[in-house]
Amino acid sequence: MSETGLVTIIMPNRNHARYLPRALDAMLAQTWIRLEIIVVDDASTDTSLAVVADYTKRDSRVRILALKEHHGINRAVNAALGSVNGEFVTVAGADDFVAPNFIERCVIEMNRHPEAGLSFSDPTEFREPEMRSIHFPLYLSEQPNFLDGAALVALFRRNYFHISANTGVYRTGAFLAAGGYRPELKWLSDWFATLVIALRYGACYLPEPLTTVTMRGDSYSARSLRDGKAQRPLLDEFLKLLASAEYADIAPNMRRAGLIPEYHLRALFWLLQSPEGRKFVTPHLVMRIVHRYFWSFLRPVAPVQWRRRLRQAQSERTRAA
Prior knowledge:
alpha/beta, 43% helix
C-alpha cells in the first residue's frame, strides 16, 4: 500500500561514487521533505557502497539496494519497485542535477490533477566535456497545464517534442501498470514507459527547468545510439509490445501521433518490412521522417538561440491551431 504524499526516488548507480554526494545532497535538500531514496547499486567496483552507507547513517530516508551482479539500469530500476512505498516515484540519475523545488512543484501540480499519470518539465542538458548547461524550452504552454491523452496526441502530430524521463515524476500505480522499465527495450525503456503513462492517463506540464541531465560521451545511451545495427531489434521489440494485449489501448494513439523510437530514413524501410510496422506508415509519419532527416544535418550547425526561436514559433502555431 503506497503512502499518500510520499515520493520514492529510485537512483540507479554504477561506479558513480564521485557524483553520488552531489545527487544525494540535492535530493535531501528538496523543499518537499516527504520522500525516500532507494539507491540501487548495480554491482559497482568503486567506493559507491561506502558513500551511500555513510548517507544511510545520516538520514533514515536513504536506503541502499545492492545488486550482486551487474544487470544494467532497467533491471536496477525494476529491482527497486518491490520496495517502493511512495504514492509517487521518480528515477534519478546519479550524475544529474535537480532544482530544490523539483519534487514539490511536480507533486503540487499532480495533486491539482489527480487523473494525471505523470508530470514533466522543460529539459536542460549539462554537457560535461564543455562544462556548460543548455536549456531547451518546449513552449507547450505559458503556465502549468494538464494535457490529457487526446491533447498530447494532437500536440505530437503538429509539433514533435520529447518528454525527457529525467524530468518526470510518476504516479507509482501508473508506472507499475506501464510495466516499469522494459529490459527488452534497453535504452528506450524510459522513453516507452513515459509515453505509455502520458497517453494512458494524461500528464502535467510545467514550463520551467527543474532538472538537468548530464550528457557524457561514455554514457550507456550515448554509446548505444551510435550503434546503428542495434536500432532495428529495438524497433521490432517496440512493435511487438504494441501488438500485445497489455498495450492495446496505447497502440492506436502511438500510431496516430506518429511516435516511433527513431526517425532515420532506415526506420521507414524497417517499418515496411513487417505487418505491424506497416500500420505505422502514414503520410504524416513519412513527412516527419523526411523532415527530421534534413533537420539532422542542420541541427549540429544551427545556433542554440536560433533553434530555440524556431521551437517557440512552432509551438505558438500549434497552440493557435
